[in-house]
C-alpha cells in the first residue's frame, strides 16, 4: 500500500506559484498592491527606478527601485483599458470619469459653474443611413420577414437579403463617420447663424457651440453617435448665450445641419459612394430632474458613460485586431539581409485569424471580410482599414468633446493620481514634497503584461470581492 503520510507534489502551476508568493517575506505588502489594482485583468509590468533630489543641494529626498523595493522585483500598474470586454475593473473607472465629465458640463462642478444648467442643451442621436433592409422589431407590427422577433433573436440586425446588402457602403460609412461628424458641426454653426440672422463670421463673438459625444454600434454593425450639444457664451461655459439662443432654435439647426451633410467617396474599384446621415434622428431637450422628466442630467450622463466602455463587440464582432502582429498585416517580413519574405506566422495573408474561423454571424463575417478587402485597395490605403477590421472600419474615438465643454479625462486622472500619492505618503508617514524645489530622475523598462499564475488567483479573489460588493450596493439601492 502507498504511504499516505508522504506529501504529494503540487501539480497545479498556479497553486505552486501561489505558495511561492506566500513564502515571500513581504507577501502582505504584495497582496495589498494587488488589491489596489482593483482586479485589473492585464496589468502592465515595469522594472526601473526613480530618484527625487533637492534642486538646491542635490540631496536624495526619496528613492525607489523595483529591484529592492518590490517583493517580486517588478511593479504592476493597472492597464487603464476602457473596454469592458477587455478589463471590467479599469472600464468601470473610465465610465465613472466619463460620467462626471458629461455631468459637470450639464450641472456644473469640476471647474464648471452651476449656471451652465440654464444654457440651452439637447441630447441628439445621429444614425447611419440604410444599406439594405434588415430584420428588426417595428413596434407591434411584424418584421418584413413576417416574424415577430424576440429581443434576443440573433437574426436582429442581419440583412433580409445579404446578396443585395451594401456591405461596402456600410464599411465606408463607419470609416468616414468622424469626417461626417466634423462636417455636421461645421454646418451646425452655419445654421445657427442663419436662424439668428447674423453673419457666420460674427457667430464666435456672441456664441460658442459645445458638445460631448459617444459612438455606439447598432446590431447591423453601423456606427451612430449620441451627443450632448450645448450653447454657451463666446468664452464657453462661464458665460450665458444670447437670449435668442433657445432650445427650439438649436433643435431646428441640428435637423437642418445633419440633412445637408454629404460626402462623396470615389474609387475605381467600387465606383462612387454618397455618404450621409440617416433619416432617423432624435433631438430631445435635457431638463432638470423631476417626476415627469426622464431625460435628466444624471440619466444622460449615465447613458453616455455606459456606451463609452463598449465597442464593436456589441454588434457581434471581435474585440481584438485581426491583422498579423509580426508582419503588421503586410504578409511579408524583412530579413536581416534586407529582403522581403513571406511571413511564417500568417503564411503571407496578413491575417492573424482568417475570417472563416471566427465565431461570429455570417453578416458580421462578411463585414469583416469586406473591410479587409477594401483595406487592400490602393484607393483606400489612407484609411488603414486593415488595422481597423475588427472595428468594422470605424477609426475614431469612442468618446470625445469640444474644448470648452467641461473638464478633461486627463484632469480627472491627475486629481485621482494626486489623491493616491498623498494617501500613500500618509500611510508611509512621509511629509509632502515641494515639487518646485525637487527634481525627479527616472528610468523605466516595460517587461510585459498580465499576472503570474499565483497572482492571477489573488486577482480573481479581488474581482469576486468587488463584484459581491457592487451586487450588495445595487440591492441596497433598489426600492
TrEMBL record:
Pfam families: RepSA. InterPro entries: RepSA (IPR046828). It comes from the Bacteria. This is Replication initiation protein. It comes from Streptomyces guryensis.
Amino acid at each position: 500500500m502507498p504511504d499516505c503520510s508522504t506529501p504529494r507534489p503540487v501539480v497545479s502551476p498556479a497553486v505552486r506559484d501561489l505558495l511561492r508568493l506566500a513564502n515571500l517575506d513581504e507577501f502582505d505588502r504584495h497582496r495589498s498592491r494587488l488589491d489596489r489594482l482593483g482586479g485589473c485583468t492585464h496589468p502592465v509590468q515595469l522594472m526601473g527606478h526613480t530618484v527625487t533630489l533637492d534642486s538646491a543641494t542635490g540631496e536624495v529626498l526619496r528613492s525607489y527601485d523595483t529591484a529592492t523595493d518590490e517583493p517580486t522585483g517588478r511593479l504592476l500598474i493597472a492597464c487603464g483599458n476602457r473596454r469592458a470586454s477587455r478589463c471590467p475593473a479599469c472600464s468601470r473607472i473610465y465610465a465613472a470619469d466619463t460620467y462626471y465629465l458629461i455631468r459637470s458640463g450639464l450641472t456644473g462642478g469640476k471647474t464648471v459653474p452651476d449656471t451652465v444648467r440654464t444654457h440651452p442643451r439637447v441630447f441628439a442621436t445621429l444614425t447611419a443611413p440604410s444599406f439594405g433592409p434588415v430584420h428588426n422589431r417595428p413596434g407591434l407590427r411584424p418584421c418584413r420577414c413576417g416574424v415577430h422577433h424576440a429581443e434576443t433573436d440573433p437574426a436582429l440586425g442581419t440583412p433580409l437579403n445579404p446578396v443585395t446588402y451594401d456591405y461596402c457602403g456600410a464599411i465606408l460609412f463607419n470609416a468616414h463617420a468622424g469626417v461626417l461628424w466634423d462636417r455636421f458641426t461645421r454646418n451646425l454653426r452655419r445654421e445657427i447663424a442663419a436662424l439668428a440672422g447674423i453673419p457666420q463670421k460674427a457667430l464666435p463673438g456672441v456664441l460658442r457651440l459645445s458638445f460631448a459625444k459617444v459612438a455606439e454600434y447598432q446590431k447591423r454593425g453601423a456606427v451612430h453617435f449620441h451627443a450632448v450639444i450645448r450653447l454657451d457664451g463666446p468664452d464657453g461655459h462661464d458665460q450665458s448665450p444670447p437670449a435668442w439662443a433657445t432650445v427650439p432654435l438649436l433643435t431646428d439647426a441640428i435637423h437642418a445641419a445633419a440633412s445637408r451633410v454629404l460626402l462623396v467617396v470615389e474609387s475605381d474599384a467600387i465606383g462612387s459612394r454618397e455618404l450621409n446621415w440617416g433619416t432617423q434622428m432624435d433631438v430631445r431637450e435635457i431638463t432638470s430632474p423631476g417626476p415627469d422628466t426622464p431625460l435628466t442630467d444624471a440619466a444622460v450622463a449615465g447613458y453616455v458613460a455606459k456606451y463609452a466602455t463598449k465597442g464593436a463587440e456589441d454588434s457581434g464582432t471581435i474585440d481584438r485586431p485581426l491583422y498579423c502582429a509580426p508582419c503588421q498585416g503586410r504578409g511579408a517580413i524583412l530579413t536581416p539581409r534586407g529582403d522581403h519574405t513571406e511571413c511564417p506566422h500568417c503564411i503571407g495573408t496578413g491575417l492573424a485569424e482568417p475570417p472563416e474561423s471566427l465565431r461570429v454571424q455570417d453578416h458580421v463575417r462578411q463585414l469583416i471580410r469586406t473591410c479587409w478587402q477594401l483595406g487592400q485597395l490602393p484607393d483606400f490605403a489612407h484609411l488603414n482599414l486593415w488595422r481597423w477590421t475588427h472595428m468594422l472600419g470605424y477609426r475614431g474615438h469612442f468618446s470625445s468633446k469640444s474644448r470648452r465643454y467641461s473638464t478633461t479625462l486627463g484632469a480627472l486622472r491627475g486629481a485621482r493620481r494626486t489623491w493616491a500619492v498623498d494617501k500613500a505618503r500618509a500611510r508611509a508617514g512621509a511629509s509632502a514634497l515641494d515639487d518646485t524645489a525637487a527634481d525627479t530622475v527616472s528610468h523605466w523598462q516595460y517587461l510585459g503584461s498580465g499576472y503570474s499564475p499565483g497572482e492571477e488567483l489573488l486577482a480573481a479573489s479581488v474581482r469576486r470581492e468587488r463584484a459581491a460588493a457592487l451586487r450588495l450596493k445595487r440591492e441596497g439601492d433598489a426600492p
